[in-house]
Amino acid sequence: MDANQGSRKAVLLVFVLFLLGIALGSLGTYVVTTRVLAARPQTAPHGPAQTMAMFTRDLNLTPNQQTQIQAIMNDTRAHYAALHEKLDPEYEQVRHQGRERIRQILTPEQVPKFEELLRQMDERRRQAAAEGHD
């Protein structure tokens, strides 16, 4: 009978610890979502439409102001695109030179790993450029 009672106590202890784990996990999740994440600054809009929506909402823009600001934003994006087109070859040259310098100090075993890392970085940069976050 003592062994049976000891087993019950052990099962009860495990069950209580399980419930405490759930309670602490729930409390931790609550604190993180309500306090920590709420205290973080809000991220900026991700695109022209979101920016325009934020301006319209926060500045209470009239339709005429919206039209004018949209034209300014379109013109600004066109200038950014022209700058990118002009400067991208220079950035690419500097990037290539830096990569070559790094390759010179790597071991033969490290070079393939480096090339894979570069491939991944280049892919992420292409994706960001395609999304307009260049």
Give a written overview of the molecule.
By secondary structure, the chain is mostly helical. The chain has a domain of 40 residues. The chain is built from four helices and no strands. It is flat. 0% of the residues are buried.
Beta content: under 5%
SS elements, strand count: 0
Coarse shape? flat
* Secondary structure category: mainly alpha
**What is the CA-CA span between the terminal residues?**
73 Å
Biggest sheet architecture: none
* Average pLDDT figure: 85
Give the helix proportion (percent range): over 70%
H/I helix tally: 4
List the uncertain runs. Answer: none
Order of helices and strands: HHHH
Radius of gyration: 28 Å
SSE blueprint and pairings:
Elements: H1 2-39, H2 48-59, H3 63-105, H4 110-130
Helix pairs in contact: 2-3
What are the main properties of this structure?
mainly alpha; 134 residues; flat; single chain
